[in-house]
């Protein structure tokens, strides 16, 4: 038994010495994306091995081979391997992509904007196959039912809808049936929480009986309260004319809209001469009735003495007041009767 035990010890010692001498190269470690395939751990000097790119990496130049040198070191490692790239992701509609790179082992996370819900994976990793691990998700809008409609109101949607489901951001505008008026938010919107904005209420609005009009009248109007949007019509006694709208409307404030005023007409206060009215030259005695309505324009003729020519001088009727321009000189009765052709209205007009 003793000789056999000695032989066994010698064999173990010999095995240890043959595997671990200083001039034997150890298995090269994985480095910069390259590695050695197979299960060998020690290599004799002069042994050439072939490296390859690790999973998820692709060769980018350099030599695959290295050789074990007599000093137990490998020759320089020149194989270049880079991480594989996954396809550039498209923008996530109504959401965001959060990532720093798109190479092997990179991770993208997904998030949705307010009012949208993520349907699908929350993240995706770039795999060694240069493909993303998960199909990118969608951001779908939050949904609401139909909004509540208050009594005496209706809603006008932004666009036509089908069914009873609406989406985040969709909305419409409330309207009350006259004489009711909205009190609250007129706009209705499907919110990010899946709930419609609070609807308004319709309240009754009335205006007091319309007041009378100086020098005018109310046409077919009763002395009573009027509801929102109701109208009354005004008119003026002759020769007065309306200045402003002929109708006034009961507003949602409970007040009437702008009320018109009856304005007086004007008389052209000259006895002799010619005027220009509505594009026509008229002798004052032929101007019948002698009446210019409020805001209308009329002209008398003046003389430019330096150039010996005539020109029309305009004036306006303002609520019964018509001022004759200071340049007008009324001719004497003799000149008007015998020498009318020499009046400023009849001679050459100034250019």
What does this molecule look like?
The protein is mostly beta strands and 351 residues long. The chain has 5 domains: 23-83, Complement Module, domain 1 (Ribbon); 95-141, Complement Module, domain 1; 146-203, Complement Module, domain 1; 206-263, Ribbon (Complement Module, domain 1); 274-342, Complement Module, domain 1 (Ribbon), CATH 2.10.70. It has helices spanning 2-19, 333-338, and strands at 25-26, 34-36, 42-43, 48-53, 57-59, 65-67, 81-83, 95-98, 107-112, 116-119, 123-125, 138-141, 143-144, 153-157, 166-167, 171-176, 180-183, 187-189, 201-204, 206-207, 216-219, 226-227, 231-236, 241-243, 247-249, 261-263, 274-277, 280-283, 297-304, 309-318, 321-322. It has a 5-stranded antiparallel beta sheet, with no helix packed on it. A 3-stranded antiparallel beta sheet has the order 2-4-6, with no helix packed on it. The longest helix has 18 residues, at 2-19. Mean pLDDT is 91; it is low at 1-20.
Unreliable runs: 1-20
What best-fitting shape do the alpha-carbon axes yield?
elongated
β-strand amount: 25-35%
Class based on secondary structure composition and strand pairing: mainly beta
What's the rounded overall pLDDT mean? 91
Question: CATH superfamily name of the largest domain?
Answer: Complement Module, domain 1
Taking the alpha carbons of the first and last residues, their distance comes to 149 Å
CATH topology of the largest domain: Complement Module, domain 1
Sketch the major β-sheet. Answer: 5 strands, antiparallel
Helix content: under 10%
- What number of domains? 5
Return the CATH class of the largest domain: Mainly Beta
How many DSSP E strands? 31
Report the CATH architecture of the largest domain. Ribbon
Count of helical stretches? 2
Kindly report the spatial arrangement of strands forming the biggest sheet: 28-27-29-30-31
Question: What's the alpha carbon Rg, rounded to whole Å?
Answer: 51 Å
